[in-house]
Specification:
By secondary structure, the protein is an alpha/beta fold. It contains twelve helices and 19 strands. Helices cover about 30% and strands about 20% of the residues. Bound molecules: guanosine-5'-diphosphate, 6-O-phosphoryl inosine monophosphate and magnesium ion (MG).
Length: about 425
């Protein structure tokens, strides 16, 4: 007999997502909330993500392992919707172990797809082929891996438990990929199936202890009243459906993606926290209405250390865009905003917020669905008074009035409460409101 569940019988989970184009400081928020969490789950993306956590002067960079791993006892799940690069995750595991962090609570879902060497090669080849129309991907093989998943020819990590099936799938895939690489793209970057099998079977052997059906673990935890936290990767505008297509990633970073990517029902989520920065950044190509090409932009990049965690690329920087903020609140049903990095704006005399777009003579308040419309949008700005250094502040009451006004204006324009404010990268530099 299993227990019949009704609403109110379980403890709904919290979801943390990126509400802009990624790199909003999600990992810092996850790290802070993980103190209370029993389970932390990644449900989409792969090692295209770069999540930084600063604790007691130590900096940890995560790509696949959930940022909750720094708390001993917290179960960390790589869910079914994630694409796993075995070499990448093993490097991360080795890094953590060498720094004294236990990975005994790491679980990887058997259904997660495996990023293979030909995915990485095809990512690069396709980008080169696109020429000026390249997306600016991380070249981690994410798109090609999700392509195989959707096309139903992908290799799942659980296939490591059935070596004959794994080998057969590798041989079939390599045959087709080599033909595409050499005949369609006329590249000589072809692969040897037997070499891949040898290398990857070794990775599989090391990963076996972590493999399980994580959907059951998550469900049981929620049922038992434990705190479950979902760690988003990428951001709303990189969502394959709702983002700035085709300049997006190949998964669903919005809150809706969590259900499919972790195998839970929507009734099991109630809090949805969207992480924003006090400005906007973007890595890779694609339209960006508030992008700055002047000293303010350079200053934000330098003070905010806006260089990619995964690729080291300089991030494009621009003013806070409330059209994007509203869009994220609406498409993810955000119940709260975590507003990071407002310390980076310190000592800028006048701070701008984009409240709407102007397209010709038309004022646009909703984020355009078509890229061609977005490309024609000019930001409409509101100017706010700036503030001095705030990185030492630890209580909301101690903020200068200008900061309080700025936070209030972001709430009004985006339509959700700001419940956390970041004034620096460390755990302590977070202010709960
Ligand atoms: P994520 O991908 O959303 O987890 O974000 P990243 O880790 O890629 O980038 C955010 C960067 O900003 C990291 O280097 C963080 O340590 C840093 N950071 C996070 N919050 C704050 C903050 O409030 N102020 C400052 N100055 N840095 C922050
Ligand atoms: P986190 O989790 C910022 C961007 C890439 C590129 C596009 C597609 O750290 O916020 P992909 O390799 O996914 O096919 O690249 O998406 N991108 C990110 N930008 N933060 C990320 O992750 C990103 N993950 C992918 O730069 O524009
Ligand atoms: Mg990042």
């Amino acid at each position: 007999m299993i227990e019949v569940m009704e609403r109110g019988d379980f403890m709904p989970a919290k979801v943390v997502i990126g509400a802009q184009w990624g790199d909003e400081g999600k990992a810092k928020i996850i790290d802070i909330l993980s103190e209370e969490a029993n389970v932390v789950v990644r449900s989409q993306g792969g090692n295209n993500a770069g999540h930084t956590v600063s604790v007691n002067g130590e900096v940890y960079k995560f790509h696949l392992v959930p940022s909750g791993i720094l708390y001993p006892g917290t179960i960390c799940v790589v869910g079914n919707g994630v694409v796993v690069d075995p070499k990448g995750i093993l490097e991360e595991i080795d890094m953590l172990v060498s720094r004294g962090i236990s990975v005994s609570n790491l679980k990887i879902d058997l259904r997660a797809h495996v990023v293979m060497p030909y995915h990485k090669a095809l990512d690069g080849i396709k980008e080169k082929y696109r020429g000026k129309k390249d997306i600016g991907t991380t070249k981690k093989g994410i798109g090609p891996c999700y392509m195989d998943k959707a096309e139903r020819s992908g290799i799942r990590i659980g296939d490591f438990l059935y070596p004959e099936i794994f080998k057969e799938k590798v041989r079939e895939n390599v045959k087709i990929k080599n033909a595409i690489i050499s005949k369609v793209y006329e590249s000589d970057e072809v692969f040897n199936a037997e070499e891949i099998i040898k290398e990857y079977m070794e990775y599989g052997e090391r990963l076996k202890p972590f493999l399980t059906d994580t959907t059951a673990i998550i469900y049981e935890a929620i049922k038992e009243g434990k705190e479950v936290l979902f760690e988003g990767a990428q951001g709303t505008l990189l969502d394959i459906d709702l983002g700035t297509y085709p300049y997006v990633t190949s998964s669903h970073p919005i809150t809706g993606g969590v259900c499919v990517g972790a195998g839970i029902g929507p009734t099991m989520i109630d809090e949805c926290i969207g992480v924003m920065k006090g400005y906007v950044t973007r890595v890779g190509k694609g339209p960006f209405p508030t992008e700055l090409f002047d000293e303010d932009g350079d200053r934000i990049r330098e003070v905010g250390k806006e260089y990619g965690t995964t690729t080291g690329r300089p991030r494009r920087c621009g003013w806070f865009d409330a059209v994007i903020g509203r869009f994220a609140v609406r498409t993810s049903g955000l119940t709260a905003i975590a507003l990071n990095k407002i310390d980076v704006l310190s000592n800028i005399p006048v701070i701008k917020i984009c409240t709407a777009y102007k397209k010709g003579n038309e004022i646009i308040k909703e984020f355009p669905a078509h890229l061609e419309d977005l490309k024609q949008c000019e930001p409409v700005y509101e100017e706010l008074e700036g503030w001095g250094d705030i990185s030492h502040i630890r209580r909301y009451e101690d903020f200068p009035e200008a900061v309080k006004k700025y936070i209030k204006r972001i709430e009004e324009l985006c339509g959700a409460k700001v419940t956390m404010v970041g004034v620096g990268p460390s755990r302590e530099q977070n202010i709960n409101i």
